[in-house]
Amino acid sequence: MTPYEIIARKRDGQELSAEEIHYFVTSYLKGAVKDYQMSAFLMAVFLRGMTDREISALTRSYIESGKVIDLSDIPGKKVDKHSTGGVGDKVSILLAPLVASCGVPVPMISGRGLGHTGGTLDKLESIPGFQTRLSVDTFRQLLKKHGVAMIGQTEDIVPADKRIYALRDVTATVESIPLITASIMSKKIAEGIDGLVLDVKVGNGAFMQEMEQARALAGSLIRVGREFGKNVVVCLTNMDQPLGKKVGNWLEVEECLDGFHGKAPQDLMELTYRLAAHMLVLGGKAADLETAEEMCKAAIASGKAFQKFLEMARAQGADVSVLEKPETYPVARFRATLEARESGYVFRMQTREMGLAAVELGAGRLRAEDPVDAQAGIILFKKVGDSVEKGEPLLEIRTNKEAVIEQVFRRLKNAIVISGQIPKPQPLVLEEILS
Ligand code: URA
Question: Is residue 408 lining ligand 1, measured as CB closer than 6 Å?
Protein backbone atom coordinates (compact mmCIF):
# COMPACT_ATOMS: atom_id res chain seq x y z
CA MET A 1 0.00 0.00 0.00
CA THR A 2 1.37 3.42 -0.96
CA PRO A 3 -0.03 6.88 -0.23
CA TYR A 4 -0.66 7.24 -3.97
CA GLU A 5 -2.81 4.08 -4.06
CA ILE A 6 -4.81 5.14 -1.01
CA ILE A 7 -5.54 8.55 -2.51
CA ALA A 8 -6.50 6.94 -5.82
CA ARG A 9 -8.83 4.42 -4.16
CA LYS A 10 -10.63 7.18 -2.29
CA ARG A 11 -10.71 9.34 -5.43
CA ASP A 12 -12.46 6.46 -7.20
CA GLY A 13 -15.05 6.15 -4.44
CA GLN A 14 -13.85 2.91 -2.87
CA GLU A 15 -14.11 2.09 0.82
CA LEU A 16 -10.75 2.24 2.60
CA SER A 17 -9.88 -0.25 5.32
CA ALA A 18 -9.14 0.86 8.90
CA GLU A 19 -5.48 -0.15 8.29
CA GLU A 20 -5.20 2.03 5.21
CA ILE A 21 -6.66 5.04 7.03
CA HIS A 22 -4.42 4.48 10.05
CA TYR A 23 -1.35 4.11 7.83
CA PHE A 24 -2.15 7.28 5.89
CA VAL A 25 -2.72 9.43 9.01
CA THR A 26 0.34 8.13 10.92
CA SER A 27 2.55 8.47 7.84
CA TYR A 28 1.43 12.08 7.53
CA LEU A 29 2.46 12.80 11.10
CA LYS A 30 5.85 11.16 10.49
CA GLY A 31 6.41 13.25 7.36
CA ALA A 32 6.25 10.29 4.97
CA VAL A 33 2.97 11.60 3.54
CA LYS A 34 3.40 15.21 2.41
CA ASP A 35 1.01 18.14 2.81
CA TYR A 36 0.14 17.97 -0.91
CA GLN A 37 -0.78 14.28 -0.60
CA MET A 38 -2.88 14.88 2.49
CA SER A 39 -4.58 17.78 0.69
CA ALA A 40 -5.45 15.49 -2.23
CA PHE A 41 -6.75 12.85 0.19
CA LEU A 42 -8.91 15.41 2.00
CA MET A 43 -10.37 16.61 -1.29
CA ALA A 44 -11.09 13.01 -2.28
CA VAL A 45 -12.91 12.48 1.05
CA PHE A 46 -14.73 15.76 0.59
CA LEU A 47 -16.00 14.74 -2.85
CA ARG A 48 -16.57 11.02 -2.28
CA GLY A 49 -17.59 10.92 1.39
CA MET A 50 -16.89 8.05 3.76
CA THR A 51 -18.85 5.10 5.07
CA ASP A 52 -19.65 4.85 8.80
CA ARG A 53 -16.85 2.32 9.16
CA GLU A 54 -14.36 4.68 7.55
CA ILE A 55 -15.49 7.62 9.71
CA SER A 56 -15.00 5.54 12.86
CA ALA A 57 -11.55 4.45 11.66
CA LEU A 58 -10.57 8.04 10.83
CA THR A 59 -11.73 9.25 14.26
CA ARG A 60 -9.81 6.42 15.94
CA SER A 61 -6.63 7.18 14.01
CA TYR A 62 -6.86 10.84 15.06
CA ILE A 63 -7.35 9.83 18.71
CA GLU A 64 -4.46 7.36 18.56
CA SER A 65 -2.15 10.03 17.16
CA GLY A 66 -1.89 11.34 20.74
CA LYS A 67 -2.85 10.55 24.32
CA VAL A 68 -6.30 10.01 25.77
CA ILE A 69 -6.57 11.94 28.99
CA ASP A 70 -7.68 9.98 32.04
CA LEU A 71 -9.82 12.20 34.24
CA SER A 72 -11.23 9.39 36.38
CA ASP A 73 -9.62 10.76 39.55
CA ILE A 74 -11.49 14.06 39.18
CA PRO A 75 -14.86 13.74 40.91
CA GLY A 76 -18.09 14.28 38.99
CA LYS A 77 -19.19 13.77 35.43
CA LYS A 78 -17.02 15.76 33.07
CA VAL A 79 -19.05 17.44 30.33
CA ASP A 80 -18.02 19.53 27.35
CA LYS A 81 -19.69 21.41 24.51
CA HIS A 82 -18.55 21.91 20.94
CA SER A 83 -19.95 23.82 18.00
CA THR A 84 -19.60 22.83 14.36
CA GLY A 85 -18.66 26.42 13.62
CA GLY A 86 -20.41 29.69 12.95
CA VAL A 87 -19.93 33.43 12.69
CA GLY A 88 -19.83 35.34 15.98
CA ASP A 89 -20.19 32.07 17.89
CA LYS A 90 -18.43 32.89 21.12
CA VAL A 91 -20.64 30.71 23.34
CA SER A 92 -17.82 28.45 24.62
CA ILE A 93 -16.02 31.33 26.36
CA LEU A 94 -19.14 32.29 28.26
CA LEU A 95 -20.47 28.80 28.83
CA ALA A 96 -17.42 26.85 30.08
CA PRO A 97 -16.84 29.01 33.20
CA LEU A 98 -20.60 29.32 33.71
CA VAL A 99 -21.11 25.55 33.78
CA ALA A 100 -18.02 25.04 35.94
CA SER A 101 -19.33 27.63 38.40
CA CYS A 102 -22.46 25.47 38.74
CA GLY A 103 -20.35 22.44 39.73
CA VAL A 104 -19.86 20.48 36.50
CA PRO A 105 -16.18 20.07 35.50
CA VAL A 106 -15.56 21.28 31.92
CA PRO A 107 -12.42 20.03 30.15
CA MET A 108 -12.46 21.87 26.82
CA ILE A 109 -10.19 21.33 23.82
CA SER A 110 -11.04 23.82 21.10
CA GLY A 111 -9.92 24.71 17.62
CA ARG A 112 -8.77 27.78 15.73
CA GLY A 113 -10.69 29.71 13.09
CA LEU A 114 -11.73 27.48 10.24
CA GLY A 115 -12.80 28.81 6.82
CA HIS A 116 -15.17 31.72 7.35
CA THR A 117 -15.83 30.78 11.01
CA GLY A 118 -13.97 31.95 14.10
CA GLY A 119 -12.19 29.68 16.58
CA THR A 120 -12.30 29.70 20.36
CA LEU A 121 -8.50 29.46 20.66
CA ASP A 122 -7.89 32.56 18.54
CA LYS A 123 -10.44 34.41 20.65
CA LEU A 124 -8.95 33.31 23.97
CA GLU A 125 -5.45 34.20 22.79
CA SER A 126 -6.59 37.78 22.14
CA ILE A 127 -6.56 38.09 25.95
CA PRO A 128 -3.01 39.21 26.84
CA GLY A 129 -1.02 36.32 28.30
CA PHE A 130 -3.76 33.66 27.96
CA GLN A 131 -2.03 30.33 27.26
CA THR A 132 -3.84 27.63 25.29
CA ARG A 133 -0.77 25.52 24.45
CA LEU A 134 -0.58 23.55 27.67
CA SER A 135 0.61 20.04 28.43
CA VAL A 136 -1.78 17.27 29.37
CA ASP A 137 -0.48 17.35 32.95
CA THR A 138 -1.11 21.07 33.30
CA PHE A 139 -4.55 20.63 31.74
CA ARG A 140 -5.44 17.97 34.32
CA GLN A 141 -4.11 20.04 37.21
CA LEU A 142 -6.07 23.11 36.08
CA LEU A 143 -9.22 21.10 35.73
CA LYS A 144 -8.77 19.53 39.14
CA LYS A 145 -8.17 22.86 40.83
CA HIS A 146 -10.55 25.18 38.97
CA GLY A 147 -13.14 22.85 37.45
CA VAL A 148 -12.45 24.24 33.97
CA ALA A 149 -9.59 24.50 31.48
CA MET A 150 -9.65 25.57 27.83
CA ILE A 151 -6.79 24.51 25.59
CA GLY A 152 -5.98 23.56 21.99
CA GLN A 153 -4.91 20.35 20.30
CA THR A 154 -1.24 19.79 21.13
CA GLU A 155 1.58 17.47 20.11
CA ASP A 156 0.19 15.22 22.88
CA ILE A 157 -3.54 15.41 22.24
CA VAL A 158 -4.92 14.71 18.76
CA PRO A 159 -1.92 16.12 16.88
CA ALA A 160 -3.44 14.66 13.72
CA ASP A 161 -6.39 17.03 14.01
CA LYS A 162 -4.12 19.97 14.77
CA ARG A 163 -2.21 19.47 11.48
CA ILE A 164 -5.12 18.39 9.29
CA TYR A 165 -7.43 21.11 10.62
CA ALA A 166 -4.94 23.79 9.51
CA LEU A 167 -4.70 22.18 6.07
CA ARG A 168 -8.49 21.92 5.62
CA ASP A 169 -8.79 25.58 6.52
CA VAL A 170 -6.86 26.61 3.41
CA THR A 171 -7.79 23.85 0.94
CA ALA A 172 -11.59 24.26 0.82
CA THR A 173 -12.15 20.89 2.50
CA VAL A 174 -13.99 21.97 5.62
CA GLU A 175 -17.64 21.27 4.79
CA SER A 176 -17.42 17.50 4.93
CA ILE A 177 -19.40 15.30 7.34
CA PRO A 178 -16.62 12.66 7.76
CA LEU A 179 -13.92 15.28 8.28
CA ILE A 180 -15.97 17.37 10.72
CA THR A 181 -17.01 14.25 12.65
CA ALA A 182 -13.45 12.95 13.04
CA SER A 183 -12.13 16.39 13.93
CA ILE A 184 -14.70 17.14 16.62
CA MET A 185 -15.16 13.69 18.11
CA SER A 186 -11.43 12.90 18.33
CA LYS A 187 -10.79 16.03 20.38
CA LYS A 188 -13.77 15.37 22.59
CA ILE A 189 -13.05 11.68 23.18
CA ALA A 190 -9.37 12.38 23.90
CA GLU A 191 -10.39 14.84 26.61
CA GLY A 192 -11.72 12.08 28.81
CA ILE A 193 -15.29 13.42 29.03
CA ASP A 194 -18.41 11.57 30.11
CA GLY A 195 -20.92 13.73 28.27
CA LEU A 196 -20.98 16.10 25.34
CA VAL A 197 -23.35 18.78 24.08
CA LEU A 198 -22.97 19.53 20.38
CA ASP A 199 -24.21 22.68 18.74
CA VAL A 200 -24.72 21.82 15.08
CA LYS A 201 -25.13 25.06 13.18
CA VAL A 202 -27.56 25.25 10.27
CA GLY A 203 -27.96 28.08 7.80
CA ASN A 204 -26.12 30.38 5.44
CA GLY A 205 -23.27 30.98 7.91
CA ALA A 206 -22.81 27.30 8.81
CA PHE A 207 -20.87 24.51 7.13
CA MET A 208 -24.20 22.70 6.80
CA GLN A 209 -26.62 25.07 5.09
CA GLU A 210 -29.63 22.76 4.90
CA MET A 211 -31.51 21.02 7.69
CA GLU A 212 -31.11 17.61 6.02
CA GLN A 213 -27.30 17.92 5.89
CA ALA A 214 -27.22 19.17 9.48
CA ARG A 215 -29.31 16.19 10.62
CA ALA A 216 -26.92 13.86 8.79
CA LEU A 217 -23.96 15.49 10.55
CA ALA A 218 -25.76 15.22 13.89
CA GLY A 219 -26.41 11.53 13.22
CA SER A 220 -22.75 10.92 12.40
CA LEU A 221 -21.55 12.72 15.54
CA ILE A 222 -24.01 10.83 17.75
CA ARG A 223 -23.10 7.46 16.20
CA VAL A 224 -19.39 7.96 16.83
CA GLY A 225 -20.09 9.28 20.34
CA ARG A 226 -22.10 6.14 21.15
CA GLU A 227 -19.41 3.89 19.75
CA PHE A 228 -16.96 5.43 22.21
CA GLY A 229 -19.43 5.23 25.12
CA LYS A 230 -20.20 8.95 25.42
CA ASN A 231 -23.53 10.52 26.25
CA VAL A 232 -24.22 13.02 23.47
CA VAL A 233 -26.92 15.70 23.11
CA VAL A 234 -27.19 17.61 19.83
CA CYS A 235 -28.88 20.98 19.38
CA LEU A 236 -29.43 22.11 15.79
CA THR A 237 -29.30 25.90 15.92
CA ASN A 238 -29.88 28.73 13.50
CA MET A 239 -26.86 30.34 11.79
CA ASP A 240 -28.66 32.56 9.27
CA GLN A 241 -27.07 35.58 10.91
CA PRO A 242 -24.07 36.09 13.21
CA LEU A 243 -24.66 35.20 16.84
CA GLY A 244 -24.67 38.33 19.00
CA LYS A 245 -23.47 41.60 17.54
CA LYS A 246 -19.70 41.24 17.45
CA VAL A 247 -17.49 39.21 15.11
CA GLY A 248 -13.71 39.08 15.61
CA ASN A 249 -11.40 37.76 18.28
CA TRP A 250 -11.17 40.38 21.00
CA LEU A 251 -14.54 41.88 20.03
CA GLU A 252 -16.13 38.52 20.83
CA VAL A 253 -14.35 38.27 24.17
CA GLU A 254 -15.69 41.75 24.89
CA GLU A 255 -19.22 40.57 24.12
CA CYS A 256 -18.73 37.60 26.45
CA LEU A 257 -17.75 40.04 29.19
CA ASP A 258 -21.09 41.77 28.58
CA GLY A 259 -22.64 38.32 28.88
CA PHE A 260 -21.01 37.68 32.25
CA HIS A 261 -22.55 40.97 33.39
CA GLY A 262 -25.94 39.93 31.97
CA LYS A 263 -25.80 42.54 29.20
CA ALA A 264 -25.08 40.56 26.04
CA PRO A 265 -27.52 40.37 23.12
CA GLN A 266 -30.53 38.17 23.76
CA ASP A 267 -29.69 35.48 21.16
CA LEU A 268 -26.24 34.89 22.66
CA MET A 269 -27.66 34.55 26.17
CA GLU A 270 -30.55 32.31 25.05
CA LEU A 271 -28.23 29.86 23.31
CA THR A 272 -25.67 29.91 26.11
CA TYR A 273 -28.34 29.14 28.72
CA ARG A 274 -29.85 26.34 26.65
CA LEU A 275 -26.55 24.58 25.92
CA ALA A 276 -25.32 25.12 29.48
CA ALA A 277 -28.59 23.69 30.82
CA HIS A 278 -28.09 20.50 28.82
CA MET A 279 -24.57 20.26 30.29
CA LEU A 280 -25.86 20.57 33.86
CA VAL A 281 -28.41 17.83 33.23
CA LEU A 282 -25.76 15.55 31.64
CA GLY A 283 -23.45 16.35 34.55
CA GLY A 284 -26.13 15.28 37.03
CA LYS A 285 -26.39 18.72 38.68
CA ALA A 286 -29.99 19.41 37.64
CA ALA A 287 -32.96 17.12 37.18
CA ASP A 288 -34.43 18.99 34.23
CA LEU A 289 -33.64 21.75 31.76
CA GLU A 290 -35.86 24.38 33.44
CA THR A 291 -34.11 23.97 36.80
CA ALA A 292 -30.73 23.97 35.02
CA GLU A 293 -31.49 27.23 33.17
CA GLU A 294 -32.50 28.88 36.46
CA MET A 295 -29.21 27.76 38.02
CA CYS A 296 -27.29 29.27 35.09
CA LYS A 297 -29.17 32.56 35.27
CA ALA A 298 -28.49 32.76 39.00
CA ALA A 299 -24.75 32.11 38.43
CA ILE A 300 -24.61 35.04 35.99
CA ALA A 301 -26.68 37.34 38.21
CA SER A 302 -24.56 36.66 41.31
CA GLY A 303 -21.24 37.19 39.46
CA LYS A 304 -20.19 33.60 40.27
CA ALA A 305 -19.73 32.75 36.57
CA PHE A 306 -17.62 35.87 35.93
CA GLN A 307 -15.43 35.10 38.96
CA LYS A 308 -14.87 31.59 37.59
CA PHE A 309 -13.90 33.09 34.21
CA LEU A 310 -11.35 35.38 35.89
CA GLU A 311 -10.03 32.44 37.96
CA MET A 312 -9.58 30.31 34.82
CA ALA A 313 -7.98 33.15 32.82
CA ARG A 314 -5.58 33.95 35.67
CA ALA A 315 -4.64 30.28 36.03
CA GLN A 316 -3.90 30.12 32.28
CA GLY A 317 -1.55 33.11 32.47
CA ALA A 318 -3.86 35.96 31.44
CA ASP A 319 -3.56 39.56 32.50
CA VAL A 320 -7.07 39.81 33.92
CA SER A 321 -6.95 43.59 34.39
CA VAL A 322 -8.13 43.95 30.81
CA LEU A 323 -11.07 41.62 31.50
CA GLU A 324 -12.06 43.83 34.40
CA LYS A 325 -11.54 47.02 32.36
CA PRO A 326 -12.10 46.07 28.70
CA GLU A 327 -12.13 49.76 27.72
CA THR A 328 -8.33 49.74 28.18
CA TYR A 329 -7.83 47.20 25.34
CA PRO A 330 -6.18 48.76 22.26
CA VAL A 331 -8.53 49.46 19.36
CA ALA A 332 -7.72 48.72 15.70
CA ARG A 333 -6.22 51.66 13.78
CA PHE A 334 -8.93 51.85 11.10
CA ARG A 335 -12.67 52.00 11.69
CA ALA A 336 -15.38 52.63 9.11
CA THR A 337 -19.15 52.54 9.14
CA LEU A 338 -21.45 51.01 6.55
CA GLU A 339 -24.71 52.90 6.18
CA ALA A 340 -28.09 51.71 4.91
CA ARG A 341 -28.75 52.65 1.29
CA GLU A 342 -32.52 52.51 1.82
CA SER A 343 -35.12 52.38 4.59
CA GLY A 344 -36.95 49.18 5.51
CA TYR A 345 -36.19 46.06 7.53
CA VAL A 346 -33.05 43.95 7.61
CA PHE A 347 -34.50 41.03 5.71
CA ARG A 348 -31.57 38.67 5.35
CA MET A 349 -27.85 38.45 6.02
CA GLN A 350 -25.32 36.50 3.95
CA THR A 351 -23.59 35.27 7.06
CA ARG A 352 -20.78 33.38 5.33
CA GLU A 353 -19.87 36.57 3.46
CA MET A 354 -19.73 38.40 6.78
CA GLY A 355 -17.41 35.74 8.18
CA LEU A 356 -15.19 36.03 5.08
CA ALA A 357 -15.19 39.82 5.50
CA ALA A 358 -13.95 39.37 9.07
CA VAL A 359 -11.20 37.05 7.79
CA GLU A 360 -10.15 39.68 5.22
CA LEU A 361 -10.07 42.33 7.92
CA GLY A 362 -7.50 40.17 9.70
CA ALA A 363 -9.61 38.17 12.17
CA GLY A 364 -8.95 34.85 10.39
CA ARG A 365 -6.36 33.20 8.18
CA LEU A 366 -5.93 33.16 4.41
CA ARG A 367 -2.90 30.81 4.69
CA ALA A 368 -2.22 28.22 7.40
CA GLU A 369 0.81 30.10 8.72
CA ASP A 370 -0.90 33.52 8.92
CA PRO A 371 -1.23 35.14 12.34
CA VAL A 372 -4.63 36.56 13.29
CA ASP A 373 -5.32 40.12 14.33
CA ALA A 374 -6.96 40.28 17.76
CA GLN A 375 -8.49 43.70 17.13
CA ALA A 376 -10.01 43.16 13.68
CA GLY A 377 -13.69 42.44 13.16
CA ILE A 378 -17.21 43.70 12.69
CA ILE A 379 -19.72 45.28 15.07
CA LEU A 380 -23.34 44.95 13.97
CA PHE A 381 -25.79 47.69 14.87
CA LYS A 382 -28.73 45.91 13.24
CA LYS A 383 -29.85 42.29 13.12
CA VAL A 384 -32.41 40.48 11.01
CA GLY A 385 -35.89 41.91 11.58
CA ASP A 386 -34.69 45.33 12.79
CA SER A 387 -36.10 48.41 11.10
CA VAL A 388 -33.61 50.78 9.53
CA GLU A 389 -33.67 54.28 8.07
CA LYS A 390 -31.71 55.27 4.96
CA GLY A 391 -28.28 56.56 6.09
CA GLU A 392 -28.41 54.80 9.47
CA PRO A 393 -25.26 52.81 10.40
CA LEU A 394 -25.67 49.07 9.82
CA LEU A 395 -22.27 48.02 11.05
CA GLU A 396 -18.74 49.15 11.83
CA ILE A 397 -15.59 47.42 10.63
CA ARG A 398 -12.30 47.44 12.49
CA THR A 399 -8.95 46.57 10.97
CA ASN A 400 -5.25 47.32 10.99
CA LYS A 401 -5.05 46.78 7.21
CA GLU A 402 -6.23 49.95 5.47
CA ALA A 403 -5.81 48.39 2.03
CA VAL A 404 -8.64 45.88 2.53
CA ILE A 405 -11.36 48.32 3.59
CA GLU A 406 -12.76 48.99 0.11
CA GLN A 407 -13.02 45.34 -0.91
CA VAL A 408 -14.54 44.39 2.46
CA PHE A 409 -17.19 47.08 2.06
CA ARG A 410 -18.02 45.77 -1.41
CA ARG A 411 -18.55 42.32 0.13
CA LEU A 412 -20.59 43.60 3.06
CA LYS A 413 -22.85 45.90 1.00
CA ASN A 414 -24.30 42.85 -0.71
CA ALA A 415 -24.36 40.78 2.46
CA ILE A 416 -27.16 42.72 4.16
CA VAL A 417 -30.47 42.68 2.33
CA ILE A 418 -32.97 45.41 3.24
CA SER A 419 -36.61 45.06 2.25
CA GLY A 420 -39.97 46.70 2.85
CA GLN A 421 -41.16 43.32 4.13
CA ILE A 422 -40.70 42.16 7.73
CA PRO A 423 -38.95 38.76 7.73
CA LYS A 424 -40.64 35.83 9.45
CA PRO A 425 -38.96 35.34 12.87
CA GLN A 426 -36.87 32.15 13.04
CA PRO A 427 -36.36 30.13 16.23
CA LEU A 428 -32.76 29.99 17.43
CA VAL A 429 -32.88 26.39 18.63
CA LEU A 430 -34.38 24.42 15.75
CA GLU A 431 -34.22 20.84 17.02
CA GLU A 432 -32.76 18.87 19.91
CA ILE A 433 -31.67 15.25 19.69
CA LEU A 434 -30.93 13.29 22.86
CA SER A 435 -28.93 10.13 22.19
N1 URA B 1 -15.00 22.23 14.71
C2 URA B 1 -13.98 21.35 14.71
O3 URA B 1 -13.32 21.15 15.72
N4 URA B 1 -13.70 20.70 13.58
C5 URA B 1 -14.38 20.89 12.43
O6 URA B 1 -14.07 20.24 11.47
C7 URA B 1 -15.44 21.81 12.43
C8 URA B 1 -15.74 22.48 13.59
Answer: no
Whether residue 387 is contained in a domain is answered as yes
Q: Is 187 a catalytic residue?
A: yes
**Structural domain includes residue 61:** no
Rounded to the nearest 5°, which phi and psi values hold at 107? Answer: -90, 115
Q: What is the pLDDT of residue 396?
A: 98
Residue type, position 139, single letter? F
Domain span at residue 196 reads: 79-325
Residue 174's pLDDT is: 92
Predicted pLDDT at 435? 75
Catalytic site includes residue 387: no
| Ligand 1 neighbourhood includes 186 CB (under 6 angstroms) | no
**Are 302 and 153 in a shared domain?**
yes
Q: Indicate whether residue 178 lines ligand 1 (CB < 6 A).
A: no
* Claim to verify: residue 357 and residue 405 sit in the same structural domain: yes
CB atoms within 10 A of CB 231: 17
Q: To 5 degrees, how large is the angle CA 141–CA 145–CA 151?
A: 55
72 lies in a domain?
Answer: no
pTM: 0.94
Residues of the chain whose pLDDT is less than 70?
Answer: 368
DSSP bridge partners of 20: none
- Per the structure, the count of domains in the chain is 3
**Do residues 279 and 196 share a domain?**
yes
CA distance 289 to 292: 5
